[in-house]
Amino acid sequence: MRNLFRRMAVMLGLITPAMYAWPGMDVNLPDRRQLHLVGSIHMGSREMAPLPASLLARLRQASALIVEADITTGSPLTNDEPITVPLSERLRPQMQTLLSGICGEYGLDEAALTALPSWHIALILQARQAESLGLRAAYGIDYQLIQAAKAMDKPVIELEGPQQQMELLLQLPDQGNTLLHDTLDHWHDNARLLQTMIGWWLYNRPINMDKAFPSTFSGELYQHLMTERNQRWKRQLEDLPSGEYVVAVGALHLYGEQNLPSLLENNL
Predict the structure, then answer these.
(1) Domain map of the chain by residue range?
(2) Fewer beta carbons within 10 angstroms: which end of the chain, N or C?
(3) Is the pTM of this model over 0.85?
């Protein structure tokens, strides 16, 4: 049924299929509101800068840039959560072995990680994996778009902001233990997903879109971090005044299950 809605929306000109050199699509909302949705990658390679000239042209004519959070002004993660369960009790033996191997490979202090909540460990591991692939935050798509928007004196609208994102992490059950489990369980899938996104931005759109974005979150975690956020963002985007907007969010929000474009088009 979702695919039927999508085909009808394309036929009616409400949503334009991706035809860009980057992960992007257009959605037209009622009352002359035009959204150009961009699948962002939060850390990028040096070759991903500068951004495509045609994307910057879209930003130049936009009323505003919309992002998950303005990461150019956000404060770094802080950890003042008391640890309620030792790490050795949070992980199955095979996961503990995998974590030890990752720490050895990437030069992480495993003993220091044990003092952190699970969600914080997961984010550290994900960042280190991205860095090992040559990715840096300064070349992230959202970071570059925010810098470009500010240089153009364009408003930057946050869907959440750093503080709300921190609250999302703090609300995870068991201090985010499922996020750590999923990070370890899908370690190689995450690396392939990053490589897919790099390839799309630098070279070509994936041939098989169904396999390009594997699910690396368990059901409850996906609901919390993806579906519920997409639903909130949908309501925020539907409240925008008339105008053209560039909207940069993580690529999984555009192409995964219950993705943002499908939620928007289902109400057209």
Answers:
(1) 2-265
(2) N
(3) yes
